Each structure stands twice: as C-alpha cells, then as structure tokens.
Amino acid sequence: MNDTVFLIIAGIFGAIIVFAIVYFITSSSRKKKLGVIGMVTNNKGLTQGKLTEFLPNFDNNRFSKNVFRTYINIEQALNTLNLEGIRNMISPELFKQYEGQIAFFKNQGKSLIRQDFTHYYTRIIGVTRQNGEVIANVLLGLEYKEYFLDSANQVIGNNQFPISKEINLLLAVKNNTRAVMSCTHCGALVTSRVTPKCGYCENPIVSYDYEFVILKERSRTIRKPKFFNN
To answer: Which residues pair with 216 in a beta bridge?
Structure first.
C-alpha cells in the first residue's frame, strides 16, 4: 500500500516537473518570437535623452502624435491602393511587401480596410545612430476596425468589431525640413503651406515636426488597455 501511494505521489510530482519545463520552453519561445525588432531596449528616460541628443528641440508629445499620423497615412494609402503616395515613408523592403499584399487581394477580388483608429500609446523603447541616421524602436498601441470588401465594395461577412494591436516599428527619424503635412480628416498628404485647408476635403491640415521612414514592422494582438494616453 505504501509503495502504491509513493508511486502515485512520485507520478504527480513528475507530471508537475514536466509541465513546468514545457511551459518554460513555450513561454521563452513566444517571448523571443514577439520580441522587439533590431535593438536592445532602454528605459524611457534614456531613450528620450538619446533622441534629445540626436534631434535638437525633441518633443515627446509631438513625436508620439507624428508616429501615429504617419502610420494612419500608410494605412489609408493601403485602403485606397495608393502605394506611390507612401513610397518615401517606407523602406523598399516594406514597399515590396505591401505591393505583394495588394496584388494578392486583387487576385482574390477583395480589399482589406482598416479604419476608425484609436491611439492608445507610443512608447520609445530603443534609440541608436546607424550610418548617420537616427533609428528609433517604437511600440504603437492602437484600436481599429478591420474588414474585407469584395469587388463591388460590399463588406464580406460581419467582422467589423474593433481589435487592439501593438505595432512594433523600427523608424529612421529626422527633424522635418520640408513642408510635408497631413489632413487630420482624410489623411491626404499636402506639400504646401499656402493654404490652411486640405484641397480634398477642406478640413485643416497639420504640420509634421518629424519625418519618418518605417524600416521594419511587426504586430501582435493585445488586450485593450484599461488606461491609456491618446
């Protein structure tokens, strides 16, 4: 009887140990897979200090909003299949990736739409200088609706519920030296400061303090934060 109890207890402990090992391996693999792109992370003070060092008159609030607007401009260009409008905002690698994505959806007779964006946060988690360029590693927290349209612009299915995503962006960033602005309503790019209104929808235009080129992009689904700065 005692031997039977001992074997049962030993079996339970063995199962617990095996489970712990499997969980540790799976967790480590997942963290590695979802890890940030391209550089070691730093704390908030160090990263902002580096950006202040690299970019005179750096302002975190304007930087955060500029990253969000840039990402929205890219998504709106993808919605309308206007890749040429964002060529100078993404790396050649991403351009080819988006080009392939659009070609695939066209062959399927549908298009992917993302809209109604909510900005949760922009977190700078790494900063470095490479070949004279300032490279920032950024996490962008968003909520948006995502759905497909068919060739007649009809919604496919009924999947229009908001989803929450964290976008990991590797950005080449510099102070804006050109008159590049974005309409706050339709996202159209404007290259002149002559008029304060968008030539497409007549809404106010917004000036960028920084110019970005998105070098790499990775995303993952997250839970909606209970508290966030937008």
So the answer is: 170
